[in-house]
Design goal:
By secondary structure, this protein is of the alpha+beta class. It is built from seven helices and 15 strands. The strands form five sheets. The protein has a five-stranded antiparallel sheet with strand order 11-3-5-6-12. A three-stranded antiparallel sheet has the order 2-1-4, with no helix packed on it.
Length: about 230
């Protein structure tokens, strides 16, 4: 199959790679859309030690099920799905207790480091465990579904923050996750949302997405300004 392979830092090539192996508990997904994470950019330029070439990067993806392992009986061929970027073992105490993020054997799709190499979704197909696969509604476009992993980060941040109606929320950093967080905290009930960044274009986008106050971190004393705005 075809894949976009990081052959060396700052060099990626579309090339032929082996088809992924599909284990008894795995699902083979035909990738229809895959996002480019900031970590993929850092992998491309070599500024992270977690994407050592050769590697197929990419972990924000969605697609269609084209094959299932012998133990998978609850997901039909043709199902529209997305999947987690982290692959937990499913067997350790943490996994059995529902805390797969703490799994001692966890891996991340599209990452290669000193401990493991796990090819990602910059490819025609990818094999992932059924336990990290999630169905998509028919009405959700694949290019939108590829953002589910990123959106979940922002939604989780809003959920673990005790926001109630009338609160002011400050989002520091208006990159992709920050822009999603602006929307998530607004939906969670924050009456005033303050976005902080160093980039005017990002701040402008934050304003368009619901931020009430835009602060350039290099031009104002942010803590002092927040206290002024909130009466704190």
């Amino acid at each position: 199959m075809k894949a976009l392979l990081l052959t060396e830092y700052k060099n990626m090539q579309v090339t032929d790679v082996d088809e992924p192996e599909v284990g008894p508990d795995d699902v083979l997904v035909q990738v229809e859309a895959c996002g480019i994470c900031g970590s993929d950019i850092h992998g491309y330029d070599g500024s992270t030690g977690r994407r050592i070439p050769p590697l197929v990067m990419g972990h924000e993806a969605a697609g269609v099920v084209v094959q299932v392992g012998e133990n998978v009986d609850d997901l039909e061929l043709g199902a529209r799905v997305t999947f987690d970027s982290m692959v937990s073992c499913g067997n350790c105490d943490f996994c059995r207790e529902g805390h797969g993020n703490l799994c001692d054997n966890r891996m991340v799709l599209g990452v290669s480091c000193g401990d493991y190499r796990r090819h990602g979704a910059f490819a025609e197909r990818i094999s992932v465990p059924r336990r990290i696969v999630y169905r998509l509604p028919d009405t959700l476009p694949f290019e939108h579904a590829a953002l589910v992993e990123a959106v979940s980060v922002a939604v989780h941040a809003a959920e673990v923050t005790p926001i109630k109606l009338g609160d002011t929320a400050v989002v520091v950093g208006a990159g992709m996750i920050g822009l999603l967080a602006v929307q998530a905290v607004r939906a969670a009930g924050a009456t005033q949302v303050i976005a902080v960044d160093l980039n005017d274009k990002r701040l402008e986008t934050a304003g368009a997405l619901g931020a009430d106050v835009l602060l350039r971190a290099d031009q104002v004393d942010v803590p002092a300004k927040v206290r002024e705005l909130t009466g704190g």
